[in-house]
Amino acid sequence: MAVRLSAPDPASIKPVPGVELGFAEAGIKRAGRRDLMLMRLARGSRVAGVFTQNSFAAAPVQVCREHLDSGEAIRALIVNAGNANCGTGDDGIAAALRSCEVAARLIGCSISQVLPFSTGVILEPLPVDKIEAALPQAFATLAADRWAAAAAAIMTTDTVAKATSRTIDIDGVTVTVTGIAKGVGMLQPNMATMLAYVATDALVDQVALQRMVREVADVSFNRVTVDGDTSTNDSFVLIATGKAAMPEIIGAEPARYLALKATIVEVAQQLAQAIARDGEGATKFITIAVNGASDEAEALRVARSIGNSPLVKTALFASDPNLGRLLMAIGNARVEELDTAKVDLYLSAGDDEVRVIEAGRRAASYREEDGARVMKPDEIVIRVELGRGTHGTVVWTCDFSYDYVKINAEYRT
Amino acid sequence: MAVRLSAPDPASIKPVPGVELGFAEAGIKRAGRRDLMLMRLARGSRVAGVFTQNSFAAAPVQVCREHLDSGEAIRALIVNAGNANCGTGDDGIAAALRSCEVAARLIGCSISQVLPFSTGVILEPLPVDKIEAALPQAFATLAADRWAAAAAAIMTTDTVAKATSRTIDIDGVTVTVTGIAKGVGMLQPNMATMLAYVATDALVDQVALQRMVREVADVSFNRVTVDGDTSTNDSFVLIATGKAAMPEIIGAEPARYLALKATIVEVAQQLAQAIARDGEGATKFITIAVNGASDEAEALRVARSIGNSPLVKTALFASDPNLGRLLMAIGNARVEELDTAKVDLYLSAGDDEVRVIEAGRRAASYREEDGARVMKPDEIVIRVELGRGTHGTVVWTCDFSYDYVKINAEYRT
Question: I need a surface site. Which of A218, A267, A384, B322 has the fewest CB within 10 A?
Answer without folding.
Answer: A218
